[in-house]
Amino acid sequence: MREVVFTRMSGWIPNVIREDGELKLMLGAGADANHEPRTFTFPVREAHLAVIREDLGRHLLLWSAVLPLCDAAGTRGRLDENAAVELLDPVLLSAPADVDALFRRIPWDRSRLIAHGADIDLLERGQVCAAMRAATETSDGKRAQEHHANRRRAERGTVLGPLDTAILKYTGQYLHGATVPKRIPGAVDPALLPEVMHLIAVAEQACAGMRIGRDPRRGKRATDKREWDRMATTVDTAVRRAHPELADDAVRTVSFLMCSEAADRSRNAPMEDDEEAAGGRAESGGSARKTSLSFTDDKGVEKKWVKDSPRTATAEFWEFVGDRSAGDNEVFTIEDEEMGEGIQLHFYADSIARITTVSVGEGGSDPEYRVEYSLVDGIGGYRNLVSAFVRGGCVALGEHGSWMSDAAELERARRRRAGK
To answer: What's the whole-model pTM score?
Structure first.
């Protein structure tokens, strides 16, 4: 039989219960293997209950000291009850100086105390009892998050000024640098908002006309890393020129915002729009001879495109690549059976082969093919080559790259480019 003897306003602060006639402290902490909250209990005495009732600060300090023991129990382990019980007298019944000394020796949950109003400066100086005079039963999780974020920045040697803070709050990255940035003007101090908006305008002007296209080699929604880096560098340079005093975190968050928005525009556009922006659709009006094409991958999967298809050949091909490309599937082919030619893209080696039928086999003999190779410069290079082939076949590829007839020569060129 369980009876709640004492509880506070916040349901997370440990309760005192009576279970089978014994007083216990009960708290929820951590989660089990199914991500359900775990509940722990350990025995307390009447003297401990009296302090818990009357002294919110001591109650919260006890909670802070016990939480690391709960964390150590993991998803299915037992709470070390002896260790928990050994904390009761030192935390609840000792003199403030002794409690401060204890907290310099044991692990404890700082963020929990900060969320409940502890004086941060006093905590930092090791005066935990004095810090808890400002404690409240209600919790402010954002206060603890801000303190944690500032501690992480301080460990990296980063100090934010008012404008730095305003910019990070505008993008939603003040608390969590890994958060996808967005525009939140309401989070900024109104006095600083005009300066923040001016800086955002500087960034937008710097990257006007730039784009971050998709990179189907890495999946349907992946984007071109080179174009991302190029835009980030452009924005960083412009922002630093306008405000040299800004912290790196603030400059980075502005370029991250510009790049993520540009990438989202590409991801959310139809493949045809993406091809057009990248200089695609070049096959329209110049590829009358291309009546059908066959796309294949390294797993033997095939997809056909015909001239009357509502989508362009390049759009269909890159959609096929985005659907099928994987770490063990990095070779894709486009073949024009009617013209007896094709190209093979080797994503793993940044190279391409163009294959042309020299003679059709007769009398049971095999056909003769001419195979030539070229290195490719990123996804932009692949896009240009695919569009040129769709537009004009292997002949149209002559002006794109330096073509080699020997695979060994290609490998030597690849090593030279890699600096090996």
So the answer is: 0.74
